[in-house]
Amino acid sequence: MENSKILETKGLTKYFYDPVKFKVLTEIDMSIDRGEFVSIVGKSGCGKSTLLYLLSTMDTDYEGQILIHNELVTGKEDKVLAQIRNEKIGFVFQFHYLLIEYNVLRNVMLPGLKLAKYSEQELEHRALEHLKTLGMEEQALKMPNQLSGGQKQRVAIARALINDPLIIMGDEPTGNLDKKNSDLVYDIFKELTLEKKQTLLIVTHDNDFAHKTNRIITMEDGKIIS
Amino acid sequence: MNFKLILNIALHLLQARLKQTIVAAIGVTFSIAMFIALVSFMNGLNDLLDGLMLNRTPHVRLYNDIKPAEHQPITLAEAYKNNTNFIRSIKPKDIGKSIYNSKAIIAYLKKDPRIIDVAPKITTPVFFNSGTIEISGVINGIDVLSEEKIFKVSEYIIEGKVTNLLQNNSIILGKGLASKMMLTVGDIIKITSPSGNLSSLKIVGISQMGIAEVDDVMSYTSLDTAQKILGEPTNYITDIQIQLHDKLTAPEVSKEFRDKFNLDTIDYKTANAQFETGSSVRTIISYAVGVVLLIVAGFGIYNILNMMIYEKMDSIAILKATGFSGNDVRWIFISLSLIIGFVGGIFGLLFGFIFSSIIDVIPFKTPSLPTISTYPIYYDGVYYVIGIIFALFTTTIAGYFPASKASKIDPVEIIRGK
């Protein structure tokens, strides 16, 4: 790759309108390169999660531009954005958000089935591989409500990995976990960056977690201060 | 779009809410079943009543009407031919009831490929003498075999046989007439013709049409006997009744024969206009009730899907976050609705058939309808096709609005809202 910029923003500005017009993000210019393990930290309400959701393409109400893999995503229609999310972005949220109707394996496979790049058998194999690296292969056929919080989060990570995304985004992925599970999740992320050169962008207010990452973006009042 | 995946997700969502799904499907099942049963029953009834009418009315009837002459003398006079003439007090002209050249006409009609059969007939008013009183009635002189073929007269003979009429000087009396005069099969009845001829006939049967007005005056005899009573020759015929292969062409055929034979003609539709009105009103009512039932079921589905969407907000958000577009989500919920509609509809058709079959065996005996022993049901595949199309249509509409709502859900709001 001649240009290794995975994610770039230009003059990103966002307003909240409810209850009054309020500027959440001001002229954010940033970029993330391939293989970086980046964390965004800042006080509650500084706009770090808002920024993440803009970058995730789920929130489209903003000014400025977002480029994913040097491709402008601003102003694209819903269908195209969904395709981009499916193919290029993996998500891990604070709450585990697995589909309770499906078992662990199907949950992991779902984004892959949507992308339909691989056959179902191949996807199943890949999903099991991911679950195995996360130490979850024995839980593959369980339903999500039979898992603990840490286990669910590992399933969510496996799901985020299934389509080999350009970048994995996490919104407080350790926010709801105890120390032991937090460390486990961190170790998984670290391994991904080291072994697979996986790009990661994690929003967190856990400073211990942030300090272990390659690069910390600190935000305050809707601006990047370092 | 990956429909297999969307269908799979829809099915899993349904399984998670199996009880509600079943309730929604039962709503559809019930309304489709009722629709099928109702329409089949109503059409059975229509068919029965149409049958009553058609068994009395030929598709086309040729006869001589009593009416004023079409060409009055003045219009034929050279001097006034081109004027507009006003004539007052015109009296109708009776050219005789007898159809002129009837045998030739019948022979011609029997060769016509559009015609199943032709039945000549003599209708004449008579007096039935019973002791000192005279009761007015009507004698139908019929060609027994043709009449039986066209009108299935034997279905209405409750005593005796229609073929008994082939004997000389025999008569079948209407039930009302027979009971009024206290006569039974085997008795002899005296009849006075309009011209005053007196004759005695043997009663060989009793008929019951199911319409009191008819049964009180009607009687059947053979053509020969009728001609004898009236003292007319064997070519005397007052009506020619025609049964067509395609009864819908009756009005055109009727018009064609009117011009060709210079006779008056009437088709069954004109003769029984009130029946047609009744049939169409009943059909409209049954369809209206069916549609209302389906709309109610549609609201049920709408409610259940709406509730499901509130419950499944998280799932919808996660689907959207992992790459399902609003359109995909819309299709998931529309397929949910379609599955309910399809499954409910298929069971509805099945139960509709069962209900119809049950109604079909419920005894229904009425003295006015001697040929009927159970409630009438008309089975027709078309109702089932309409039923399933209705079911799919209403459920799609009912599912569309909740589905659109689901497609517009903002995942960020839900994921952040926790």
| Distance between the first and last residues' Cα of chain B | 31 Å
What fraction of the residues of chain B are assigned to beta strands by DSSP? 15-25%
How much helicity do the residues of chain B have?
40-55%
Counting copies of identical and different chains, the oligomeric state is heterodimer
Q: How many strands in all of chain A? A: 10
Order of helices and strands of chain B: HHEHHEEHEEHEEHEHEHEHHHHHH
User: Which structural category do the helix and sheet elements of chain A fall into?
Assistant: alpha/beta
Quick one: overall form of chain A? globular
CATH architecture of chain A: 3-Layer(aba) Sandwich
Count the domains of chain A. Answer: 1
For the largest beta-sheet of chain A, the strand count, sense and barrel status come to: 6 strands, mixed
Largest sheet: number of strands, sense, barrel closure of chain B: 6 strands, mixed, barrel
List the helices and strands of chain A in order.
EEEHEEHEHHHEHEHEE
Helical stretch tally of chain A: 7
State the separation between the terminal residues of chain A, measured CA to CA: 27 Å
Unreliable parts of chain A: none
Q: Which radius of gyration of chain B do the C-alpha atoms yield?
A: 33 Å
Measured by DSSP, the beta-strand proportion of chain A falls in: 25-35%
Largest interface: A-B, 32 and 27 residues
At the fold tier of CATH, the topology name of chain A is Rossmann fold
Count the E strands of chain B.
10
